[in-house]
Amino acid sequence: MLWRRVTAVYAALVGLFALGVCRLYLAAGNTAYAARAAGQSAVTIEMPARRGNFYDCGGQLLTGLSERWQALCLPGEDSYVRLYDAASPEGQAELYRRRNAASPFLLTVERKAAGLYAWPTARRYCAAPLCQHLIGYLDGEGRGAAGLEAALDGVLAGSGGHDTVTCAVTGRGTLVEGTEPAYTAAPFDGAGVQLTISRAVQRAAEGVAAETMTSGCILVLDVETAEVRASVSLPGYDPEKVADSLDAAGSPLVDRTLAAYAAGSVFKPVVAAAALEAGLDGLWVDCPGYTEVDGQVFRCASGTAHGQVDLAAALEKSCNGYFIRLGQVVGAERLLAAARALGFGQRTAVAGALHGAAGALPKEDTLAQAGQLANFSFGQGELLVTPLQVAGMMNAIAAGGVWRAPSFVLGTVDEASGAVLETAARPAARRAVSEQTAARLQALLAGVVSGEGATGRQAAPVHGSAAGKSGTAQTGQFTPDGQEKMNLWFAGFCPADDPQYTVVVMQDGQTAPAYSSAAIFGQVCEALWLLEQ
């Protein structure tokens, strides 16, 4: 009996030993068992959020034009050294901060480093940012923070899924021997957005602005549709380093195309339109260089005496005295009606919650004061307008009297297939002035550029023709040495006899710019002509 008990105990011990040997064998041949034995864990790292791109009117990319890499940085000197040369200064600083990290992390690099794990991602913005104020920028979480990025964030981001990289790591944070990182693509339900912008026209306008302006904006519209082909605002900013521009001089984060400014004489075509519609365009005025209204003296530019002027000469010479008298003849009610019909005093929708400012039209009882009516008649006083509103006004004249709200968005697209998902509703069109009035205004504004001694002669392009109106608006702001800062405008269309493009140039807060806004307008028109060849 004792022998049997001893035998049974011995057999049990042998069985337990065999079981232990088997478990050790399985652990040696099985990664999961080996991982536990080595203190292994699984680390999952999120890639930057996927996001739909912006496209121009021809389907060319406006964002995501170039490639970057998300490189896997593993604890240890070797990974650090290899990534350092491929990283940007900001990336190198991050490498230094995380040099003692105990687990893997991803680092954005401009090129793939040999011998390391890395996955390509699109660089959101160009090194030379394209259409930066309109498109806007992202916050630190990759969500839209300004411009169309914010207005269309839900469309672009979808549900906001992230692709991931999962690593099996040891207790020291290194990859478990024999394993590789696993990349997992998340479902993406965002979409691309197609804009009315033309990449070629945008780059051309940006090129002209960079060479000629320090502060201001340029807008280019297609006359037939009022679709915005270019939207430029200066000074610019780096959308990947927005913090650097928060307190910078010149307010570089402001999209000047959508902000409101004093108008000056660029508003005179509205007064002319009201007069033509009322049949009150036969006025002649003898201009001595100034006009007195209720004891207040209003001067023409530099006090120049223009002599006998009619509507054509008054536009060509930008005679304030004539337009003050014309405003008195036409009356406040007709002037305000014409301004509203041409889009002033109302916000312009861009997309979602993004709008251009409404600006300001004086109230009719304000214009009952003779001095206020005089100011309004040549674009001063309480009047505030946006460059986008001025573009809409001038485009209506170029389009035969039909006003259309300038538009920026064509629709959404499936980026995988290129199929159109949704087409944006086209802004409603309305007749602002008669065809006859528009045709007369086109001819009058052509004279501003081509007339002998006209104020807009610098707006003439080398090739083709153009029409338009200048404006120099007082701002009531002064430099330390007492010089008043001016808003300098030129708005018009080209060619003069068959308008295809409406162009607005505005330089804000200027005292002595390197180029007049008329000259910049001429360069933009010349660039448009070259693009058509």
From TrEMBL:
<dbReference type="InterPro" id="IPR050515">
    <property type="entry name" value="Beta-lactam/transpept"/>
</dbReference>
<dbReference type="InterPro" id="IPR012338">
    <property type="entry name" value="Beta-lactam/transpept-like"/>
</dbReference>
<feature type="region of interest" description="Disordered">
    <location>
        <begin position="456"/>
        <end position="479"/>
    </location>
</feature>
<dbReference type="Pfam" id="PF00905">
    <property type="entry name" value="Transpeptidase"/>
</dbReference>
<dbReference type="InterPro" id="IPR001460">
    <property type="entry name" value="PCN-bd_Tpept"/>
</dbReference>
<protein>
    <submittedName>
        <fullName>Penicillin-binding protein 2</fullName>
    </submittedName>
</protein>
<dbReference type="GO" id="GO:0008658">
    <property type="term" value="F:penicillin binding"/>
</dbReference>
<dbReference type="GO" id="GO:0071555">
    <property type="term" value="P:cell wall organization"/>
</dbReference>
<dbReference type="GO" id="GO:0005886">
    <property type="term" value="C:plasma membrane"/>
</dbReference>
<dbReference type="InterPro" id="IPR036138">
    <property type="entry name" value="PBP_dimer_sf"/>
</dbReference>
<feature type="domain" description="Penicillin-binding protein transpeptidase">
    <location>
        <begin position="216"/>
        <end position="524"/>
    </location>
</feature>
